[in-house]
Please model this.
Amino acid sequence: MTSSDSTPGTNPQDSPPGGVPAGRVPAVGVPKVGHSAVRELRGPLLVLGDADGVGWDEFATVGVAGQPDRHGLVLEVDGDEVTLQVLEGTDGMSLGGIEVRFQGRPLAVPTGPDWLGRVCNGRGEPLDGGPPITAGTTAPVGGWPLNPVYREPPQDPVITGISAIDALTTLVRGQKLPIFSVAGLPHLTLATQIAAQATTSAGRAFRVVFAAMGMTHADIAYIRDRLEERSAAGELVLLLNAADDPVIERILTPRIALTVAESLAYDEGSDVLVVMSDMTSYAEAVRDVSAARREIPARRGYPGYLYSDLAGLYERCGRVRDREGSVTIVPVLTMPAGDITHPVPDLTGYITEGQVVLDPDVDARNIYPPVDVLSSLSRLMRSGAGKGRTREDHLDVAAQILSAMARARTAAELAELVGAAALSETDNAYIEFRSVVERNLLNQGRDEPRTFDDTMDLAWQALSLLPRRELTMLSGEFLDKYLPGPVGGARL
Model:
């Protein structure tokens, strides 16, 4: 990240009517005034007095005697008293010997394709041994305001290579589709697999921005290793925030990721997938800062503005009129104790367009990815699936599989009560169907990208286990064309 005094950002009013700049504004010098009336150090916060003319969200350089400069953002302005969050934390600082220089602008980062192939920390500083990322233009990490009438509806699929997602909860270009998980499940493996494999069906320029938050160093090493091939191809940006990095950095990481993604999408014309994991770690960082600010807590100690804070991130996806690119977001979050009513998944569910739910019971049956298909949903699936997008039979096959899986669950519960021998032949067929769907369609290797046609072939093979009379959601034309077996798979 470029945070030097000579690299200011731009103001939202510089954006044209559509809310997306036709080109980022070049950096110019900004005069600075030093302030030294530090009144309090409180956790990651610094309270400064006698600071007139300072604006909310303004970027500042914090000079500490005998130490490297640190950086801060203005959280609150009350008269001449200003509260800053110090990005590197306030450890080792004392009230004396501190000078704060305000930049007269929000925090900004360079924009453009120079980010591709780079590995950085949560503040955008290189971890790959390369030079700092520089560019002639910058953009504020808070994003550009986007006029809603300039938004285009999400459309066309993003093919992840994961059968459970591509077939049943299709990700659409411009959508925000979260993954809900539980601690101990392979959500990070799934997130990196999606980042490594995903592409658009139309063969358009595709880029991935991966923002990791609150990760252990072992997880960071895994992410770098797993995504090395895509990074070497110049298609990936990695932003890695470790669990022992300052908590403030965790709040900054997804904002930098989305700023980079917006530049690649709307300026460079690429389709960009942003994977953000783990959003629960991000929300806990927001809670920690809120507590340091002595704000009144709401549900489970989270601040009352958590909903708008998350929305400010998730809503930065989509397609824009007269722009070629798109931003698609896949946030990953762990539900504490598996509680889907916890504030983070609960609020995320209100903002986003569906969810992919990972289930410990499915994982216990050695199925990867352990997706609970009956709890998962993509509300925009019809915008990205079907004839001309994926395949003509896709939507009908997905509906039939989900209906049959629900019937199979009921049959399995009945078998536990009365025994499998007491079930009808049809009920037993549904139980066998569920077993085959989980074993063949949903279960796949961690390094096994599947083409969409392979996924659909596996779906039809599972459907062939059911009597034809049960396939009421599929037309006779599709049954004759796709159903395996003799004479079009004809079964009574």
The chain has 15 helices and 23 strands.
